Amino acid sequence: MKIILSGYNVDTDVLEELKKNSPPRSDVTPETLSAAYARISRDPRPVDELRAVSRKEVESTRKSNSTIIFKMGHHSVAEHAVFNFDIIGVSRLAMEYLERFRLGSYTEKSQRYITLGDDFVIPEEFKGADLENDFVGIIKKQNVMYHELFEELKKLVFKKHSSLAAHPKNNSLLEGWAKEDARYVTSLATFGQLGMTINARNLEYLFRRFASQSLKEVSAIGKKMYGLVEKIAPSIILFAAANDFDQKTYGELESYVSREMNIKPEPVSSNRVSLVDYSANADEKVLAALLHSISGFSYAESFAKAKKLGGKQKEEIFNKTFQYMELYDSVLREFEFVNLTYELVISAACFAQLKRHRMATITTQNYDPALGVVIPDSIKELGKEKAFMEIINETNEVYAKLAKKNAQAAQYVLTNAHQRRVLIRVNARELYHVARLREDTHAQWDIQRISAQMSAKAREKMPLLAALLCGKDKYPEMYAKIFKKPPKVIL
Questions:
Q1: What is the rounded distance in angstroms from the CA atom of residue 212 to the CA atom of residue 233?
Q2: What is the torsion angle, in degrees rounded to the nearest 10, for the CA atoms of residue 243, residue 363, residue 197 and residue 218?
Q3: Tens digit of pLDDT for each residue in 275-327?
Q4: CATH number of 84-233
Q5: pTM of the complete model
């Protein structure tokens, strides 16, 4: 056996220092790894030798990459090249676009833990017009209220949790709770930052999507990112330009539906979580998948046998799958054969948490003032609900003005309290992950409530497979109900 660490991410400042202190070289590119790995399937030499050849013949390497990706259609070789980006001074709205790419990795500045300043993006769409003054004016009012709410909420939180406040080490925790609720009045134009890691295949996809985007900030982000990698890896990022598919498809769908079907939005419902579709016979389908994995039966035979099992037998089989599972373990992969689709009406603050579950399928509508806002209970407790809603109402008036010129860009002025409709499809295994993380007592309260409702609706339709669906903090209790003893690991 021979295992070699062939490469790893290195800070570009370190790379530049190394390049300054060495003779000029052209092989400081991840393309050599992509080309070497692409040759594994057809070249009998050891892969470390293939890497050495790629480093010596960079131009030949680039031609090889282009041929393999473009002519042969093997885009997967580009996944061996990985890039890191510092994304600084972009809006919260733009960060939602960045985090749509499921196979990237992101760590974002948290508005729950960091006190916000007053920096915000002024969209190019409204610059130099009377609308810019309206936009800036309401954002400044929102920010003034944020700072006022933070100070008052801090006093309230410290008073309500006096035992925790007695120890200075808890100050940042308590202040975080105040920031968490104060930020509901801040806009989607607020500056944020994130660290991003993404492979070249998905980066190319991002470039194409961003080049086709109508929001000027998003388009500019794509251009700047492309400019940084264009010369480093030209052979593995080939299709980066705007295209008709990304530019026109949704717009023409919308035009057709509006013209031919005359569809009008239904009255807004107060229901924030609706289970709109799910796998029928879900418990039996997971049981069938389990039987298929451990037997020689076909799936049809496995499903027929699963349906014939008695209730006690079904429960026992599920309990076997849970018996050795700790709170950090995922349920078995067979749970992925069952799906649930929810329609959610959630705040921007809540969506900021939900969007991180990238193995789910998530599609969204624009943020819409007609859907109302989520007001934190603490703001109501302060007696600030009226003042909060005055800012919201004024924000909605400015939004209406902006939307007449550009409805997409008008969203910048809306707040973390404003809501949007979201369609999310998860398999049962991913739902367990959502519940463990988002129903936990340490999770943000807004998504805690949404996640708990999602789990409750799942338990109604598939009670056996959802038996341990809960937050991490509740896991020992739920486990003990089934097995009459606690799990080995307890937080």
A1: 22
A2: 50
A3: 999 999 999 999 999 999 999 999 999 999 999 999 999 999 999 999 999 88
A4: 3.30.1360.170
A5: 0.90
Strands 339-347 and 419-427, by their bridges, are antiparallel
* pLDDT at res. 71: 53
Tell me the DSSP string of 204-228: HHHHHHHHT-SSHHHHHHHHHHHHH
The C-alpha atoms of residue 235 and residue 232 are separated, in whole angstroms, by 9
Position 67 pLDDT exceeds 80? no
Collect contacts of 320-323 with beta carbons under 8 A, ≥24 apart: 321/290, 322/467, 322/468, 322/479, 322/482, 322/483, 323/483
Q: Which amino acid is at 431?
A: L
Residues 125, 405 contacting (CB under 8 angstroms) = yes
Position 69 pLDDT exceeds 70:
no
Q: Two tokens at 268? A: 């807004």
- What would the two tokens of residue 391 be? 């800012």
Half-sphere exposure of 461 (CA within 13 A, CB side): 20
What is the per-residue pLDDT across 80-115, written as a single tens digit (0 to 9) for each? 788 889 999 999 999 999 999 988 889 888 777 777
Amino acid letter for position 231? K
Domain ranges of the chain: 12-80, 84-233, 280-335
Both tokens of residue 173? 């925790």
